[in-house]
Amino acid sequence: MLQSGMDESPTNVSDMAKYGKEFVTTTLELRPSCGVGRMLVEKLSPVAPDGQAKFKVLNTIAEEHNIKWDSKSFEEKKTKPVNDLVDLTKELLEMFTATKMAKVFFTNSGSETNDTQYALLAPFVVHSIYSFLTKDENERDLTNFLIFPFILSRMLHNQIWISLSRYKTAKGDNRIVDKPIEFEQVDRERNWDDQILLLGLLLYWANLTVKGVSNLPMWRTDGIIITIFMHAGPVEIIYYWLHTALHHHYLYSRYHSHHHSSVVTEPITAVIHPFAEIIMYYMIFSIPWVTTMLTGTASIISLFGYVAYFDFMNNLGHCNFEIVPKKLFTIFPPLKYMMYTPSFHSLHHTKYQTNLALYFPFYDYMYGTLDISTNTLYETSLEREGESPNVVHLTHLTTAESIYHLRLRFASLASKPQSTSPWYMRLLWHVTSWSMMVVTWFYRRTFVVERNIYKTLNFTNMGYSEIHHTLRFTKAKRALIEEAIVQAERKGAEVLTLGLLNQGEEINRKAELFMRRNLQLKLKLVDGSSLTAAVVRNSIPEGTTHVAIKGNLSKVSSSVAIALCRRGIQVSTSCENVYTRLKQKYDYEIQDNLILSDSCSQKIWLVGDDLGKTEQMNASKGTLC
């Protein structure tokens, strides 16, 4: 008979000879990284029975031995403390859900008046500037003075990423997730700047109250090295396990699902979290700061640079287009363990349970949570080219301020009518005008504004920065419109629609000029006048026999007039020029239904531009225009 013991088992002896004692011991004892699947270990591991199973066994034993005991009261007595603790824990967690904490932190965040929250910074900014200007050079606190410029730089940094991401995803090159962004996501992420404001307030508070946060040197090498190692170690590890816990169904449904509501990520998605979750992140991310301050190695560069690193990596991971070149990983292969890519984190937002690391994929490799399609998605995203649009709409700016309302610029402004622009936009009028002139002068070309998908229809909006209407700029605008038409044709578009100011008589003779100069065009050039004319024509009451054209002749009024003449309705105009133009173009169609008359007795008027007030007063009572 064989003696017990691992070392004396024939099987174990042969395994040791083949694999080594350490491997056999690790495998048999199911130590970490033993090579045995985690699920297999969990299924085969002994699990203590729960309370109900224990009470069931006790009841069975009592019945077999005819023992009478009150099992219900005993069960309630044993489980009550545990249940109370669970209820207390749930109650505390419920206090920090997104809905309730929204009332605690920035109650007007995301509303129409959320600009007023920046007034919270005003006392600190004024105090900082005043102290810096009035104190002697030796007493000035450069750290305190640089907090406000740092806040502004963070906003600029994030806005650049937002505009770049929206431009790249609209073009389609290197796009990762091919889905449109829902309106709910736009509204949910409008308060992305709250976290910048919160950190600014915390920095001012710490600078004024915490020892070691004021009068920091500009640079300390040892402090920067400590910051790097503290992030790569404790911060990444603690975040990984916190993130894993947040994906548990209880915490996920109450907290982290708010962030994961955005499947198609944008740079600002990175900072959209419930308030309690933000506080937990701040506690983790402050570890390098606290360490350098306790060791006396903190510096302005390590303090602000660490936040800038977070902003860069957050924006990079959520931008939804692959931008990290493959050459970086070829030159330095270990970089793939120390830096994630946009496609890496995008998989986390689409598959949820994989790629849980903060910025270092090393921890996903180590704990086995790396998605198997990470490398494939990275390579395909790098090689991806934008799809050909089915429909292209060429839009235009109306004023210099309207550039801020483009989707590429500020979401908070783009989601509102231009007439409701905040007061500070008026103060920036001169800056806007001069910047527009510079942009127009150096970047006079068309660009993609946004892209939408309606079922199988790929719809692309294009625009250009031209807003001037002088003869010189009209010629430039004409060239830009023609360039957009040729570009849409080259991309395989089937239809191109023109915005209202892109179809003027003075620019392209209502698109006729482009059609004549590009006879080989396969796409359909649409200006919307046919649809508008149909709406106007169908809105004319039944039984109408006489209609008047007043003001300058537009393409819509011309189309309506021709359609009415074909139906046998008389159309009169008091302008000889309008009468002549219509006769020359459509004489065979309008026959005798177009007449030249100064009468104003008609009850239906088709009104064009530049209709004088005197002529308007001649309309009889009840006239429809």
TrEMBL record:
Q: Where in the cell is it found?
A: Membrane
The molecular function GO annotations come to:
iron ion binding; oxidoreductase activity
Looking at the record, the residues that make up the Fatty acid hydroxylase domain are 235-369
Concerning Gene3D superfamilies, the annotation shows: Vacuolar protein sorting-associated protein Ist1 (1.20.1260.60)
The source's domain of life comes to Eukaryota
Residues annotated as transmembrane: 223-242, 290-309
Pfam families according to UniProt: CER1-like_C, FA_hydroxylase
Q: Which GO terms describe its cellular component?
A: membrane
Q: What is its main location?
A: membrane
Q: What are the GO BP annotations of this UniProt entry? A: lipid biosynthetic process
Give the coiled coil ranges.
none
Q: Which UniProt keywords apply?
A: Membrane, Transmembrane, Transmembrane helix
Domain Very-long-chain aldehyde decarbonylase CER1-like C-terminal, by residue range, is 548-624
Question: Topology versus the membrane, per the UniProt entry?
Answer: Multi-pass membrane protein
Entry similarity comment: Belongs to the sterol desaturase family.
Q: What is this protein called?
A: Eceriferum 1
Its ancestry begins with: Eukaryota, Viridiplantae, Streptophyta, Embryophyta, Tracheophyta
